Amino acid sequence: MPTKAATMPHAIEVSSLSKSYADGFQALKSVDLTIRDGEIFALLGPNGAGKTTLINAICGIVTPTAGSITVSGYDNQKDYRQARALIGLVPQELTTEAFETVWSTVSFSRGLFGKPRDDGHLERVLRDLSLWNKRNNKLITLSGGMKRRVLIAKALSHEPRILFLDEPTAGVDVELRRDMWEVVRELRDTGVTIVLTTHYIEEAEQMADRVGVINEGELILIEEKNELMQKLGQKQIILDLNQPLSAIPEHLQDDRLTLEANGMQLVYTYDTHAERTGITGLLQQLRDAGIHFHDIHTKQSSLEEIFVDLVKRNP
User: Fold this and answer.
1) Disulfide: which of 105, 116, 140, 203 matches 98 by Cβ 3.0-4.6 Å?
2) Domain ABC transporter spans what residues (predicted)?
3) What is the pLDDT of residues 238-264, one digit of tens each?
4) What residues contact residue 158 under an 8 Å CB cut-off, 6+ apart?
């Protein structure tokens, strides 16, 4: 009998997970991670950081060296069948059955999980991914972007409650990206948990509820996306000057103040959580110095800038 917990579990619970290979390479180092039901969780990290290894371990494709994983309360090794049935996986690699049709491939994938035939569900999935008109095409005839759509359709064929998207839009067209994210939003609205890795950090910024950053096999941060941006992000005030400056006047020298746009902009960077931002004093000093500006606007650090900064701080 499966060992599902009696209490309401999280979608994914990873505890002290490590993975080492025979050559001594340690791909994961004591990873702890909880993913909540119904959230979109973005896992960010440079190439080789351990993103795919972590996903494959959760999906039961890679056997960890140490630690435990539960999927909706099912141990993913002791109760592999129950755990895996809850998961849909869109891998990075375009692995498809070249001479099968789109319809037969997606139908077969549903059958692998013991799901009864449901042509209506498969039709909805194919229509959502703009594949319906290609349903009778052999996969070998499809473009790379269309094959990527088929992988997503296969992952959704058995109606999973947790969907893993491993770099799903890498190298695909803008139309597919738009279609796929629309499907992701609709799935989240029905309670499906989404876990994604992506190099398109603006997508994580737009889509995710929480963000995890992994580097060299270690999770260096897990944070609510909005809190992360507020906590680590910096704001800038950008002053568009009436007249160019050749240099910042000596009495205004400040590490937080830079001259940009060929001397036509003063940029002041400040911490939004500091007790005093220094903005009021700066504006007064500019007036006293006779430096006038015609426009003022602000800029918030992007998630990409925060991510790069975190990786630099945790080499």
Assistant:
1) 140
2) 12-241
3) 989 998 888 888 888 777 888 888 889
4) 85, 88, 109, 110, 112, 113, 115
